[in-house]
Please model this.
Amino acid sequence: MKRILFIAALFAAAAISTPATAGKKKDKKKVQTETVEQAAPVEPVVVLADHNDTLNYAAGVNATRGLLQYIQNKFGVDNAHMPIFIEGLKEGLDKADNAEFKARAAGYQIAEVVKQNILANVDKEIAGTTATFKQPIFMQGFFDAVKGDSTVFTLKDASMYYQEEMTELKRVRDERYKKENEEWLAENATQEGIVTTESGLQYRMVKMGTGAVAESSDKVTVKYEGKLIDGTVFDSSYTRTPDTSTFSPKQVIAGWNEALTKMPAGSVWELYIPENLGYGSRQAGKIPPYSTLIFTVEVVSVSKAAETAPATSKNNKR
Model:
């Protein structure tokens, strides 16, 4: 509420400081029509008796620039509920200095943060572990801490307990996921057409091209799609415009580097990259730690790095 009032005040100040056409006479009927077009009037339209009335009315209208879009985007208030918003705004203006009202308004704003951010983040952090997120118990701890009730936990003790427990839960989760990926790779290696290199990279040749083969410093243009062993797609050039990406093999993960320096232009391969040739134990966007990466890669073209002649010195003696 305070944020909205602050924004409205800024807009009002801007309106008063830029006279523009505010001082011009306005047709009373026209003012009424514009008001009806924006929203159904909550109360009878004001009669503008003189230039000063018109100036003040224009300043009020001008102060709403950007406000409707803000409250719709930020708070999800649609046009049908605008009268209720206006009632709340009037109440806020009347009680802006009331301590009880300010406390309740702050509660509304923090509720939005809790609902949209905090609950979702904690739920996401616990997901995949042997623990289960229970919102009512979580909120009880939240409320008790806000009230200063440390019967069960002090803030310091709760933080320490939560961090230690989550560290262990994530360790167990990651070990289980790592083993699952290793078993998947071992099974995949037995499938027909799969080649396993010395590094552990696995690939299947869908199509063998006849073009140039890149070295690490060359530029390679590719189309690709990447997914996890459960089929989750985490990246795809095919969803973008253009649908190609260009880079040097040395700029990407080890599994890609090795594959791109084996694939002639025109090739389409399926790559099965173990975590040690991918992102290892770190989270990479949507990719969990210890993930096997499955890529379909099409090498569109290879651009050889320009050969640079060695620099010579006038003092060089051959």
User: Anything to note?
Assistant: The first strand starts at residue 195 and ends at 196. Strands lie at 195-196, 202-207, 219-227, 233-236, 245-247, 268-273, 293-303. The mean pLDDT is 84.
